[in-house]
Amino acid sequence: SPVMSQQESRTGDARSDALADAIDRHFGGSEYETQVGYGEVTLVVPSERLLETARILRDHGDFLFEQLIDVCGVDYAAYGRSEWETEDASSTGFGRGVDRDLAIADDDPKRFASVYQLLSVTHNRRIRMKVYLDGGQPMVDSVVDIWSSANWFEREAFDLFGILYSGHSDLRRILTDYGFVGHPFRKDFPISGQVEMRY
To answer: For residue 158, what is the DSSP state?
Structure first.
């Protein structure tokens, strides 16, 4: 493949290219992975380096991501499997959601992810930071001490996905009812729920 000249860019957006270059300079080691697509930059961070990386992204002059816009969980169970190919789906789509035999490995080291959307007001750009988590016990350090806005977002990811944020001072459910059993956004959560409700 031809080598890109300096006038060509990898994304077509000068700000995204500058950010990707800065990421390569600071986090170019084999532990990190940079993904660039659709004008967006994603930095995949090892869980044990999350706090260190977050502080650099917040404080270093090349980044200055002062604001945490969102934290969310992702369940990658069955990601990329044929059950999600729409050409083979029934016309109603009902069978795919109910009549499926979903084999999920609890020990998958990349079953879950905690995803952080960051904004630099100073440089007028965004970045996505992603940390993959173990399927057996998804746990990662809390970033509340770095960005206080993470408080309720981490509680939501805990409530819906069961992701534990170590060091969070008030990690309790925020959307589901008192005594709710399970985590409803997990792919293996039964559609009918765990407990029969009557109204």
So the answer is: H
Q: What is the pTM of this model?
A: 0.83
Residue with tokens 């960005």: 147
Count CA atoms closer than 13 A to 117's CA, side-chain side: 7
Distance between CA 68 and CA 115 in Å, rounded? Answer: 11
Q: Over the stretch 32-71, which tens digit does the pLDDT of each residue have?
A: 999 988 889 999 999 999 999 999 999 999 999 999 999 9
Residue 43: φ, ψ to 5°: -110, 115
Which tokens sit at 126? Answer: 């965004």
Token pair of 113 as six digits: 């992810």
Q: Amino acid identity, residue 136?
A: G
Q: Which residues pair with 120 in a beta bridge?
A: 125
Instruction: Kindly report the backbone phi and psi dihedral angles of residue 80, in degrees, each rounded to the nearest multiple of 5, phi listed first.
Output: 80, 5
Angstrom distance (rounded) from CA 28 to CA 22? 9
